Records
---
Amino acid sequence: MQEASGLQLHGVPAVLPGYACYKVHDETYPAITASPKGVVQGLLYENIPADALERLDKFEGDMFVRKSLIVSSYGIAVPAWSYVLADNYREHLEPIEWSFDRFLCKEKRTFQRDYHGYRNIR
């Protein structure tokens, strides 16, 4: 469960076919990009308020574009917003897929140290 501005959000498992998740060069976070044979595992959050989406847009900056995509959750196709790497930033991707397990083992502490927080975005 995630909290955004006092709002409790519950994520459910979802997959995004046709995309892959890659490590961003010199960063601990990933980026997703179109990849015909790829599949990205993630969480689907519903009923996110418009003001929270606006803050997310600012947080993600120019490097990511919010796109309406179709994900699968519990075998049901569901429309969802997702932040996809903007085409003009593709050279920032490393040629290896991003791993959540590797992030937890090797990069989480760095991310937590350097992360300024979503709440600081207005």
---
Amino acid sequence: MEDQGREEARQYPRFKLEMEVTVISPTSGLAPGRTLEISERGMSAILPVELPLGEMVELNLKLPLGSVHMRAAVRNRNVFRHGFEFVQPRTAREAMKDSFDSIVSSS
């Protein structure tokens, strides 16, 4: 019940999305991972490293119609699960729109 209330309070809905992501971190270098969820403002991913909170990183998503590159800040972390906030959400949304729409419509 508590999770449902928290989900309803979100400004931007989240969608489950499992795909490859590579994170380029100033402290950890290249870290391959797997996305879990995505929204208009950010995403979560499992990585084999623990990135510092607040660090600015590059995200490279491998979408069906090609790769998308964007900047994000590490906003939260629970061991290897990381939450990222896109630095330029409009640019990220525009870059992912075609691939994301095709993924959602095919589910």
---
Amino acid sequence: MGYENEEFTIPAINNADDAPYKVIRPEDLEHKLRYDYIVLFHLMNNADEIPTLKDSYEITMRIIAKDGSIKRVNRQSYFYETNEDGYPISQLDVWKIVPNDSPYVTVSLNTAVKKIS
């Protein structure tokens, strides 16, 4: 996506005030942050233990590429590590550019049992 030298960082993808680059399209940022929180809250309150690298959460949103163009991307997040109590402490994200010009943020939660959209 045109990012190198560690510019595509967690502060950048959350448009943090101190980040040198703001990656997420501003209209999509609030949705991304809200859904990240809602999904984590749902998993923490409805699962005895979160299985690592099995269940995933997907959000499709728009990012601003380094050249200023807008790309629609899908980020699929897997919990990579959990502590002894089963709570997530790190995650693995897979980013894909998707060929869809829809202006909407879409979210889905994929589990081994069923898919919730």
---
Amino acid sequence: MIGGRKLWLVTLVNATFPGLAVALAFWYWNRPAPRLVADYWLIYCAVTLLSAIAMWYVPYLFGATEEKKRIYARMYASTRQVLPPRGENPRPNLLHVLFHVLFVVNFILVLALLFHAS
């Protein structure tokens, strides 16, 4: 839909922030991370979770423009759907639902980490 070159560029940009989070996690494995690093993890996890909600659950629950419905339908036409349909609203496929569960778990873990450190 967007072409190979743009897909690679988007993938590279989208991999930068989680890549940094993972690199910092390995760097500070079994030792205390500075507050700035923990804050980065919190901000990254919160932004990721809020983005998933905005991109998937707002359109699923409240509807989307006709153009967005068309785009989602084309991009995810052959994927497995697990959530019940809500009219013509786009719905997250199984892979995205699993990602979203991971986002919630990571957000809870980083909150636990920050509250434990306080």
